[in-house]
Specification:
Elements: H1 12-26, E1 50-52, E2 55-57, E3 59-62, E4 76-82, H2 92-97, E5 100-102, E6 114-118, E7 126-132, H3 136-150, H4 152-168, H5 173-196
Parallel strand pairs: 4-7
Antiparallel strand pairs: 1-2, 3-4, 5-6, 6-7
Helix pairs in contact: 3-4, 3-5, 4-5
Length: about 210
């Protein structure tokens, strides 16, 4: 994190902008939320800019809660883009001021992502992935969401897999993620073929 002068505070205009966008649009979760969270978070189009630090950026709702009817943990997945990943250092403090904890240790797994988590206890309430919009990470997450949304049978198969894995892997989140990866990669291969035959889908927007 970039050092700041003693006694100084994060730029209030940045904090206010982040509060308005992130809190109003993406913090609807409470302890009563249903696992099948459907339509609970308004998805933003990639062209709708928000303020992440000093620059406008695109934001997407991703993960299981972004797919109608898909069961899963009630965690809101947020993906936000930045022009340059090394610029994320400027927004660590503003995001932490509104409850998003920066977890740099995860960069050894995914170099192109900066990962933030919100929630005082596990599981977290929100996962925030900050990446450059041109990365495969961004494109694959949007495409995976769009493919599952358009193919409910595939979404049900994914849910069944997660439920089966959850009975075998109860406490190791990384192992759970790794166990899902072969299936996700297979679906992504199919989704790219689907995308190639869907002119309305751009490579970036999914």
């Amino acid at each position: 994190m970039r050092p700041r002068a003693a006694g100084s505070a994060p730029d209030e205009s940045i904090v206010t902008a982040c509060k308005r966008r992130f809190l109003n649009d993406f913090t609807h979760r409470d302890s009563r939320i249903r696992p099948e969270l459907e339509g609970h978070v308004r998805r933003r189009e990639a062209s709708d800019p928000i303020c992440l630090g000093r620059s406008p950026t695109a934001m997407e709702h991703v993960g299981s809660t972004s797919v109608p009817g898909l069961g899963g943990k009630p965690i809101i997945g947020i993906m936000a883009s930045v022009a340059r990943i090394d610029g994320v250092v400027d927004v660590v403090e503003p995001l932490e001021a509104i409850g998003y904890r920066y977890l740099p240790e995860f960069e050894r797994f995914i170099l192109e992502r900066r990962y933030f988590r919100k929630g005082a206890t596990e599981p977290a309430t929100h996962h925030l992935h900050v990446v450059e919009r041109t990365t495969d990470f961004w494109k694959d997450h949007v495409l995976f969401r769009e493919y599952l949304t358009a193919h409910p049978d595939e979404a049900r198969a994914y849910e069944d897999l997660k439920r089966e894995l959850a009975t075998r892997i109860t406490s190791d989140r990384l192992a759970f993620t790794d166990a899902k990866t072969p299936y996700i990669q297979t679906v992504l291969e199919r989704s790219r073929e689907w995308q190639a035959h869907s002119p309305e889908l751009s490579p970036t927007d999914g």
